[in-house]
Amino acid sequence: MSSVSTCDVVVVGGGIAGLAAAWHLRDLDVVVLEASERVGGRIRSEARGPVWLNFGAHVFGGAGSATGRLIAETGTAAARVEGRLAAVALGDRVLASGRVETYPFRLPLSLRSRAALVRAGVVLRRAVGRYAATAAERPGESAAERQQRMLDFLDDRSFTDFLGPLPPDVDAIFRATLNRSSGEPEELAAGYGVGYFHLVWNRGAGLSRNIVGGSSRVIDALAAGLGDRIRMGVPVTGVLRDGDGVRVRCGGEELAARAAIVATPAYVTRTIVHDLPVDTAAALDAIPYGPYVVGAFLTKESGPMPWDGTYALATPQRSFSMLFNTANVLRTGDRDPGGSLMVYAAAGYARALAELDDAGVAERFLADLHDLYPEARGVVEEVEIQRWERGLPYPRPGRGRLQLALTRPLGPIHLAGDYLGTWYTETAVRTANAAAGRVRERA
């Protein structure tokens, strides 16, 4: 027979959502159960002297966001990203300066493709304006109401249907950029794709800060604050209501608590939470996740490099879809030697690498990096590969119709995670805060 332990709250999942929820309830008897041998989920970085290698989430909300407040509470240092967020490389041309509206005339494109990129840019720019008005906070509304409005925006078609047919080279530009979400343009709800460009083109609208020292710094701070409340290597097999409380099954043990916060990905939540309402179970089943293959490069240059002023570079028609200069946040004064870059292949780009081992992926990534920036030859001293088979959740058309089922009250069981909205880590932290607040209300 299983042994039974008791506590106030069980948090299932040690990613940023679970850790944030436990952090806000740390004055209670809270237990965090994490199936793997590390916390942080898809947030992972490793220090390398004054720089760091990044393997997952890397940009975070500003000081006024839920994530920003959590970063401040934990005493973690964060800084605004100053480098360019909307650079593009096509063929032998890297555009990392000037207005994005000039890109169609400066990229190596045929007249037909230039015209198509101009037309698509005008359509997208107008939609971004409408999205900004839709996403703006309104007096007296709840965060849930605002999120529902954003999910409903252009939710009736895919991004591909929204923009219409494009020449292959123009399609590749948009595809490399939108793959950052882990889905293909044909799969993504149009409003979600428009919202992504809103974030990129309007620096103050969302994710614009790096954690100095690497994103794992905030995870380490949360874990240090929670101490032995965190139990790793403990997979949960069942979360079920038990009268007014819950029972959480993990191996040969059961934990009885007043409440549980389930902060696992949608597909895990669907498996471990028992007796879900039919529509909630169906909504969890309908959340897709796409793959990523990430490459982190440690560099040893002694002077300025051509990528110093860039943070994010879309790289269509290469083995990776995006390149990030993760050391950019340190370039605020005299440039210190060395640096760090991150590339990733997402969605179809990642699937194209599935047959390669890590050494093969590293070789291919490095070849494309050298082709983009010949100055990188001889300065890369370390390459590490990370594969996320299920990276980010992304919204298909019709995603807005699932939200009520995903956010409905489940008694003493509360859900949290980035799949519950469209703000990535910000959604994870907001839903964690909301779940912690509901636990307190029931206490």
Keywords:
443 residues; alpha/beta; FAD/NAD(P)-binding domain; Polyamine Oxidase, Chain A, domain 2; 3 domains; seven-stranded mixed beta sheet; 15 helices; globular
Which helices and strands occur, and which strands form pairs?
Elements: E1 3-12, H1 16-24, E2 30-34, E3 45-48, E4 51-54, H2 66-73, E5 78-80, E6 87-90, E7 93-95, H3 103-106, H4 111-135, H5 143-152, H6 159-163, H7 168-178, H8 190-201, E8 209-211, H9 216-226, E9 230-232, E10 238-242, E11 245-250, E12 253-262, H10 266-272, H11 278-285, E13 292-299, E14 312-314, E15 322-324, E16 339-346, H12 348-351, H13 358-372, E17 380-388, H14 403-407, E18 413-415, H15 425-442
Parallel strand pairs: 1-2, 1-12, 2-9, 6-14, 12-18
Antiparallel strand pairs: 3-4, 5-8, 6-7, 10-11, 11-12, 13-16, 13-17, 14-15, 15-16
Helix pairs in contact: 1-9, 1-15, 4-8
CATH fourth-tier homologous superfamily of the largest domain = FAD/NAD(P)-binding domain
* Unreliable runs: none
Helix content: 25-40%
Q: Note the overall shape.
A: globular
Query: From the coordinates shown, what is the CATH architecture of the largest domain?
Result: 3-Layer(bba) Sandwich
Number of helices: 15
Mean pLDDT across all residues, rounded? 94
Q: Can you tell me the CATH class of the largest domain?
A: Alpha Beta
